[in-house]
Amino acid sequence: MPRAMPGLLRHAAVAVLIAGLTWSAATPAAGHRLEVFAVAEGRTVSGQAYFPRGGPAADVPVSVTGPDGTVLVHLKTDAEGRFAFTAERRTDHRITVRIAGHEAHWTVPADELPKGLPGHTGASPAPASPAASPSATPPPAASPAVPDAASATRLEAVVEEAVARQIRPLREELRAHDERIGWTDVLGGLGWVAGIFGALAWVTARRRAKTL
Amino acid sequence: MHIVDGLVSPPVLFGASAAAVAGVALGLRALDPDRLPRVAMTSAAFFVASLVHVPIGPASTHLMLTGLGGLLLGWTAFPALLVALLLQAAFFGFGGVTALGVNTVVLAVPAVVAGAIARLVLRWKGPGSAFAAGALAGGSAVLMAAGLLGALLAVSGPAFVPLAQALMAAHLPVTIVEALVTGAALSFLMRVKPEAVPVSFPAAAAGTSHA
Q: Fewer CB in a 10 Å sphere around the end CB: N or C, chain A?
């Protein structure tokens, strides 16, 4: 049998091994969860399914359901885990991705979608101008007013879309930041392990003392 | 290989959870209080192992260390794994909370079986076979776990059968990595701290010299 290493060297070797494993655990590592994220830019809703720190979820089925559960869209992610669809209605869109036992959800709330879209009842929203009558017979006197209201709505939609596009990288970064597993998480878990087994040790020691 | 909530059918969930409770009870009964630090360290190792990623080509996988745990702890691997899985679910969101019983059974049963077989090999072939015994424990634990999970999924519903098959295929690279890592870990342990390995070597102990 090979000779056991002298005491100090043994303990040092074990300590180095444990430190190395813990360190490599706290650096970016393959996650096990599936995550999905989507942003509305105007009518286009685009997003990505991925494993945090583990890469994209490619070629995965995506289902989009409305608030009442009806399936609105059915699509698949591309090789980079990205997908996109056009929203038809101004309702909450619940995006679900499922792969090999993992499931992830993301809801694009209705108010991220442009106001010009029909609501879930299918009715068109009333025009912004207070003097408007049903669109079938616009009064000639009001015709200068209607283009202004329409262009104001259009401008609003364009600005909203531009803003959404600009802050999208920020949102993705924020999400990635939230999902990072850092030192504190690993150490917290290890602390709990020590605590649980410490409590167990205390209980068994007391039980032994009683039986002596 | 942690499954999320709502994946397996209720009968499978209840059965597996009951089996997990039984396994943990057995493990706690087999627990020698003097060995608690060892159990705690193994539980910590399970907890951390899934964060240690091993790149395989474009993808990467993570360690499980269940084979090593089963070899070192035997039935006590059940509570050690349960604690690690619970903390992983709480801290990292790996796996569902109601699926804890299933996840524990899927990982612990193969750990115990693989560990027992590897201990037999180690005892039979002697300390020199540490790497081979470790590799056997690590690789078989992963394969059996994948197979068990696939079986539980398949029993839950026939729609899961292709998923079960995909699972087995997906875990082949992990099996190889786990076998190598466990083999290396065991031979390291045998040299650095042989008393940690619960195998009594017949007659060879007389020849050991301690400095």
A: C
CA distance B167 to chain A (A): 7
Task: Map tokens 């049963």 to a residue.
Answer: B109
Nearest CA distance, A161 vs chain B (angstrom): 33
How confident is the model over A2-20, as pLDDT tens digits?
Answer: 455 566 666 676 666 666 6
The rounded distance, in Å, linking the Cα atoms of A106 and B19 is 34
Asked whether the CA dihedral B152, B157, B161, B162 is positive or negative, the reply is negative
> Facing residues of A38 across strands?
A47
Question: Considering only CB atoms, which chain B residues are within 8 Å of A198?
Answer: 40
Query: Residue B153 and residue A22: Cβ atoms within 8 Å?
Result: no
- Using a CB-CB cut-off of 8 Å, the residues of chain A touching B88 are 189
Q: Are A98 and B160 in contact (CB under 8 A)?
A: no
**Interchain CB distance below 8 Å, B40 and A32:** no
Task: Say what the ipTM of the complex is.
Answer: 0.77
A79-97 pLDDT, tens per residue? Answer: 888 999 998 888 889 999 8
- Asked whether the beta carbons of A184 and B91 are under 8 A apart, the reply is no
Mutate to test the interface with A, among B12, B48, B50, B188 (most CBs of A within 10 A): B48
Task: Give the global pTM.
Answer: 0.70
